[in-house]
Amino acid sequence: MKMSSVRVYFSCSVSIALCLVLFSGVDTATSINDDRFMSDVNLERYYVIEENALSNADVLLRDDYFGTDDEEEEEEEHLQHAPNLTTFRSVIDEAKAVHRLAGPDLKTFLAHPINVYHLFRRLDNGWRKGLELLLQTTPCKKWNLPLIVGRLRYLIENLPGSDELGHVVEYIAKVQNMYEINVKDIVDGRIGGTLALKPLTIAEQFEIVKILHEKDDMRTTLKWLHAINEQLPQLSSAQREGLNFSKTDILNLMASAYYDMRQVSNALEVTEKALELDPTNRIAISNHLFFTNKLAIQMDKSEPSLTRTFSGKQISKYERLCGRKKQRKVTKKKCRLIRVGFMHYKMEPISYKPNIVVFHDVIRNKTSDTLKNYAHETQSDLAWISEETFQSPKFSVDLNLDKLTENSVKQETKILLDQVSTLSSLVNEKPETLQQLQVFNVGLEGIHLKHHWSEMHLYSPPVKKWRKEAGAYFVFLNDVKIGGEIVFPDNNIILHPEKGSVLFYYHSKVSLHSFCPVIGSSLWVAVQPIQEHLRNYCVDDDEWL
């Protein structure tokens, strides 16, 4: 794990940083379309980037490093060509304050989507300009320190941009709609029972609105616009003057969103309000004429219900299941106690067609905690090539008994495999063929396993091997506060993961399930794929009497 050793403050001279070795040809990008993008390890990467940017800024951000080397230069002359560092210093001060608070509990910090939004926004808006500014310092330009320059350029190239920030905003909107979170709670940073380090400013809210509008998410755009519109009267005159938008801009965006949702009458209504505030606003004048003519043309046609539009096709069946309130309540489980030797196992049949079963309270806490921590540390170690060089994290971590070196991890892996073997005797008479045991992480975006069947060895048997079936045991290594549910959209089934429980089903008979987005500490799951002979069928190696 690199997190504990990354941040270094240089107190003597810039030359100390020459120890950095830059690696070339390393895959440093994680696609924003990949559900690993907001996994624990990938988010830690961006936190580390800011840590290293801070260490460079502490060394290079000195007034006398900007401008000429003329020692006799007067202060007034220096100020004429020296850049204004006030804005950059405020970014540094904010980042230091955040890292002081986040450092002791980094997992909780990165598990909050508003904290992630602020981190990405700070890296894209503040640090990008700041690091470019550091390249203009005397050490970078005149002291012949190529590794320092290379280090800064490497950081700049790996900063998140507008696409990554937009992806975070899309995620916030998805979670907001899925779990029916009020905009005010998101603005206050109150999600999943925890508070963000700081709330969203009204300027940040407007930036989010513009991103949502560009991505054609008009349903969520309207919710945010109404929330901003309610906040504006509460601002002082000085605060309103400091904004880069006006109430008229808000109303014009509302009109655009309403029109895209085929709510022409509502679009016309808010446009008239905009004209009351600013009769000379060209956008409002043009919109008013357009909406008036449009409404006259479709007088005989009824507009779709706004309520129906808000809950329409934009939400998939997967999202509806994840947001089902009924699942958040504790319900009585209908379990069967099955005895194996001196042990009793609680087995809960979830479905008979297809067969889906959950075994409760199977794996002990020590086993779960050991394997979860090992998987997180291993995934992080494999992703970090050096102190600053990062490659895309692998989807999962293998637990191979022949390759494990830590005795505690090896012992707990054996215990887990023994438990899976015992459970298999309850499910099937024939001993199954075990594939590679792995552990993977479900983060802020959730996961659709159908996109990862190859990586996880969740293969279906070849057609000619019709006597075999393929299944998997999914072992939940920790609890989660909100989200992380196991969803079978085609079968209208949803389950909440519980630490120590095990899910089993045949993925050769039912489509691979998905995981809902997790709010709060992420979910870690061990998966043991199997292939087995069906009951009561002859197989090629059977002996005939």
UniProtKB/TrEMBL annotation:
Residues 1-31 form the signal peptide. Coiled coil: none annotated. TPR repeats lie at residues 248-281. Transmembrane segments: none annotated. GO terms for cellular component: endoplasmic reticulum. Residues 354-531 form the Prolyl 4-hydroxylase alpha subunit domain. Pfam families: P4Ha_N, TPR_P4H. One of its GO terms (molecular function) is procollagen-proline 4-dioxygenase activity. InterPro entries: P4H_N (IPR013547), P4HA-like (IPR045054), Pro_4_hyd_alph (IPR006620), TPR-like_helical_dom_sf (IPR011990), TPR_P4H (IPR059068), TPR_rpt (IPR019734). Keywords: Dioxygenase, Iron, Metal-binding, Oxidoreductase, Signal, TPR repeat, Vitamin C. Its cofactor is L-ascorbate. PROSITE patterns: TPR (PS50005). This is Prolyl 4-hydroxylase alpha subunit domain-containing protein. It comes from Arion vulgaris. The lineage of its organism: Eukaryota, Metazoa, Spiralia, Lophotrochozoa, Mollusca.
